[in-house]
Amino acid sequence: MLWTGDLKGSVDFYVEKLGFTCNAFNDEWGWASLSLDDAGIMFSRPNRHIAYDKIGCTGSFYFSTDDVDGLWQQLKDKAEVCYGIENFHYGMREFAIYDNNGYLLQFGQDVAEQH
């Protein structure tokens, strides 16, 4: 469950840019559920029971894929890029973008799987 100040904007970002499907959206509750293949994610506006001062996360969300280069081509001009696609010493080829809330989304593929 990720918090958002812009529920519709979050759903639109994940559906239009990343290819997720919106399974449920309830603006009155401030909640939405999305999925893509075996991945599921929910967004919620913080409610009165949750103390917070801003939307944020101290980490990142990492998505493994079997076509990181294809995703890079699809996303590089549609979102704010944190770092471009490259091979890392730990054996992953990856890139990272920010979503509309500022959450860091990393996408990676095992370099050995590419050959």
Which characteristics define this entry?
2,3-Dihydroxybiphenyl 1,2-Dioxygenase, domain 1; single chain; 2 domains; 8 strands; four-stranded mixed beta sheet; alpha/beta; 2 helices; 115 residues; 17% helix
Evaluate the radius of gyration: 15 Å
In this structure, how is the largest beta sheet organized?
4 strands, mixed
Reported by name, the CATH topology of the largest domain is 2,3-Dihydroxybiphenyl 1,2-Dioxygenase, domain 1
Structural class comes to alpha/beta
Name the helix and strand elements from N-terminus to C-terminus, one letter apiece: EHEEEEHEEE
* Number of alpha- plus pi-helical segments: 2
Number of strands: 8
What is the helix content? 10-25%
Task: Give the overall silhouette.
Answer: elongated
Beta-strand percent range: 35-45%
Mean pLDDT across residues: 91
Low-pLDDT stretches? none
Query: Could you say how many structural domains there are in total?
Result: 2
Numbering strands along the chain, what is their spatial order in the largest sheet?
1-4-3-2
CATH homologous superfamily title of the largest domain: 2,3-Dihydroxybiphenyl 1,2-Dioxygenase, domain 1
* First and last CA, distance: 36 Å
CATH class assignment of the largest domain: Alpha Beta
| CATH-scheme architecture of the largest domain | Roll
Task: Please give a quick description of this structure.
With about 120 residues, the protein is of the alpha/beta class. The protein has helices at about 5-15, 70-75; strands at about 1-5, 20-25, 30-35, 40-45, 60-65, 80-85, 90-100, 105-110. The protein is built from two helices and eight strands; from the N terminus they run βαββββαβββ.
